Amino acid sequence: MKRFLAALTAGLLLLAACSAPEPESPPEPELPGTGHTAEGALTLNIHLGGEPASLDPAYATADDGGSYVLHLFEGLTALGPDGKARPAAAESWELEEDEDGLPVYTFTLREEALWSDGEPVEAEDFVYAWQRVLDYQAPTPNAYLLYPIRNAQRYREGVPVQGDDGTSTYENTLEPKDLGLEAVDERTLKVTLEGPCPDFLELLAQPAFCPVRQDIVEENPESWSQSAATCVGNGRFLLQEWKHDQSLTMVWNDQDGEEPDSVVFLNFVLSEDTAAVYNDFKAGRLQYASAIPTLDRPAETEAGTLSLENRAGVYTYIFNTEKAPFDDARVRRAISLAIDREALAADLVPERCDGAHLGEALAAAVGVDLVPAYGLVPDGIPDSLTGQDFSKALPPLQHRPAGNTEDAQKLLKEAGYPGGEGFPQLRFITNDSPAHLTAAENVRQQLAEKLGIDMAISALSTQDFAAARQEGGWDLARSGMVGTRMDPAIYLAGWGTGAAANYGKFASEDYDTLLEASYAAPEQPPEGEEEDEKDAAEDSEEDGEEHPLVIPDTRMEILHSMELLLVADEAAVIPLWQYREPALTAPGLAGVVASPLGYRLFHWAEWTPPVADTTPQEQQGE
Question: Taking CA atoms, which of 112, 118, 202, 411 is between 20 and 30 Å from 580?
């Protein structure tokens, strides 16, 4: 009997053990984040970088505070959901010519345009703000953006004054009244330009053109934009709180009577800790994050949360075109063709390199990716004639594929250097940062293997490099441009004969002629006229013969001809790669505007928070 009871007891215990529910596994520990996100269905948590130096429109740039400024302040125009300029503080404008043939814009301000303290926005606020940006005693970084305005550059940089010894110096002799700015009345602003400026309305949407109030600025000149109590703006959002080095919180400005789509509060997380920011995103505490190099790319790509946004910039090498044998276009073209840009970018992008490679170095510094470049105008810059990206409409290397070793060797042989025989050592100069040196080593290997050219790399300090590139004595030099305007002409204008940034001394009568013609050319062709200049240009490439210079009818076609001449025919500059900025967007977030100039706008953002899954765990496994 005792045995039976013992067996029964053991059986019951075993049965109880088998039928008892399994103990719940402990919840996964929460990933450590920044600690600066906010809660609320109407709040959007965003990361664009660390603490901005200033929210003053005169000092903000795309990479330092500019996106914040464009939420708190509003220029005459603003970037719309399509990325194009649309009316903002100005409700309308007219363009005419004065008696000297100069363009004159007359802007009419919106009657309901108000400052965040309820005062009306007036034309004089723009005049004061723009004069402040142009003040030659102020270290404002974007004053040059205002140079299309009549006398703006001379006001900022001075006018040449000849001394008794025949030398000229620059003196600031102009006064504010000499600028092409006039507040006709409280709601009317007249702006006279130096000449045609096709992208002027787009320029007006940038921070440097935003208005500021003279009484607000002059009451606290050094700190007026540093706190919510004194930062008076006219934008679609108001500064609610600025916890320095933690967060910037903005609230929708309802003074215009316009209702927000779904977002009332913007909470910008200010942090340089990219791992913590990424943890916030993974945990659902952050809905948008840019400049995040340390992330799980395969997982985010599969989830559809990772995007690579255009950033208007191209990394280049330039030739010293006055120094033999690089004064021969065949030599320059051979070197340009020999470089396989696809292979170069593939070797340097972050996910395919180790800590010594450029892609990771750049990503760690500014959070960018690299893609091949086949022209000087980067992706995202529009061609007003075709409606597509300028870079896609007619790439200068379209019919001359980069990395074409056979054609490159043939050109070098025609120039008198078969297989690189007798070719002098090529001296390349660059900054001494690991990023630039890694790229240079990659190019050096390609030229040695494909053309038999020995490329010596001279690594200089930043200061010494700038001086050396200015002085000459080199054969090939690192260069590049990150754009601040949406017009393709900006990326091509600096290559005219004698231009200050034309370090390689490239000179071409045809290029100068096209450049001059571009200034007055119309955007659209004359009505009823066939567009056959492009076909004629392509036919001239195929027959290999030289033809008289043909000046196309439209500005865009002229700019394409300039880029083709500079990059393909003369190869005075070698475009290598352009940039992409990775961004993470949570499911349910739409309407974010990503400008190629680097601005991120959330005016039209729509945020639908995900619905929590309340299904019992046992049902999820069925």
Answer: 202
Three-state helix/strand/coil letters over 263-328: CCEEEEEECCCHHHHHHHHHCCCCCEEECCCCCCHHHHHHHCCEEEEEEEEEEEEEECCCCCCCCC
Write out the H or E segment, with its range, that includes residue 378: none
Give whole-number Cα distances, 370 to 204, 293, 314, 582, 602, in Å.
29, 13, 10, 10, 26
Which pairs with CB-CB distance under 8 Å and at least 24 residues apart come from 494-500? 495/562, 495/566, 495/572, 495/573
* Residues contacting 130, CB < 8 A, separation 6+: 146, 149, 179, 181, 209
Cross-strand bridge partners of residue 427: 456
Tens of pLDDT, residue by residue over 482-533, are 999 999 999 999 999 999 889 999 999 999 999 999 998 999 888 755 444 4
Q: 400, 337 in Cβ contact below 8 A? A: yes
Contact 607, 333 (CB under 8 A): no
Class of domain 52-231: alpha beta
Average pLDDT, the chain: 86
Contact 576, 440 (CB under 8 A): no
- Taking the CA atoms of 232, 238, 239 and 240 in sequence, report the sign of the dihedral they define: positive
Token representation of residue 234 = 């006219």
Q: How far apart are CA 116 and CA 539, in angstroms?
A: 60
Q: How far apart are CA 396 and CA 352, in angstroms?
A: 28
Q: Do the domains spanning 52-231 and 309-522+548-579 agree at the CATH topology level?
A: no
Q: Give φ, ψ of 131 to 5 degrees.
A: -65, -35
pLDDT tens for residues 579-598?
999 999 999 999 999 999 99
Domain ranges in the chain are 32-50+244-305+586-609, 52-231, 309-522+548-579
Q: Into which CATH architecture does domain 32-50+244-305+586-609 fall?
A: 3-Layer(aba) Sandwich (3.40)
Name the packing angle between helices 533-543 and 555-563 (round to 10°).
Answer: 20
∠ Cα 476 479 481 (to 5°) = 155
pLDDT grade for 342, boundaries at 50, 70 and 90: confident
Helix (H, G, I), strand (E, B) or coil at 160: strand
Strands 247-252 and 237-243: antiparallel
62-98 confidence digits (pLDDT tens): 888 999 999 999 999 998 888 788 999 999 999 999 9
